[in-house]
Amino acid sequence: MQPCSWSLPLSDISTKRNQLRQLIRQRRQGLSAEQQQQAAIDLVRQFSTQPQLTKLQHIALYLSNDGELDTDPLIKSLWQQKKSVYLPILHPHKPGFLVFQQYRPDTPMISNKFGILEPELDPTQLKALPEIEMIGLPLVAFDKQGNRMGMGGGFYDRTLANAVFCQPAPLLVGLAHQCQQVEQVPVESWDVPLNLVVTPEQVVTPLAFSR
């Protein structure tokens, strides 16, 4: 599958982002069930070929929604390897922010206000950002420079704004279908760039690894 090409009109950045978000979401949602299933399998394969990822023990991911690249096979693969997996939860006290909680096969789940499943809050299972080695981020569009555009809520950007100053800093890895790659993502000042993007077909390494 070839990367999507998108020529942006000369308009304000918010309009550009909204137009791009609508286009790529439609392309992503248009993938067949068979294509989604194969992409999820290929994602596991891509991870297994990356030594900088396979050596990690504490990995945060997400549960897929809205046509996002399915992470379920990857999560199950990591469990089989005795890795610790974490999922984002809407922050209980800071609206617009996330916290990360360990996710196991028997973790009680609830539906948050967006209708997305997340672990039922258990403060004893929360993990601080400096203790998470990698955070796999969902996204709508990305480019080869490592710029990411999400759904527009800003939850990850707010939460990770200071992550680059953590010692050690978590590796920020975007997970996406190949058709979500564009020539250039319109960037806002608050956008947090990615260290790495993994698709079922390639690994994009725009920035030097921090580990």
From TrEMBL:
Substrate binds at residues 63, 68. It catalyses: (6S)-5-formyl-5,6,7,8-tetrahydrofolate + ATP = (6R)-5,10-methenyltetrahydrofolate + ADP + phosphate. Its EC number is 6.3.3.2. Keywords: ATP-binding, Ligase, Magnesium, Metal-binding, Nucleotide-binding. Gene3D superfamilies: NagB/RpiA/CoA transferase-like (3.40.50.10420). It comes from the Bacteria. ATP binds at residues 17-21, 148-156. GO terms for biological process: folic acid-containing compound biosynthetic process; tetrahydrofolate interconversion. Its cofactor is Mg(2+). GO terms for molecular function: 5-formyltetrahydrofolate cyclo-ligase activity; ATP binding; metal ion binding. NCBIfam families: MTHFS_bact. This is 5-formyltetrahydrofolate cyclo-ligase. It comes from Rheinheimera riviphila.
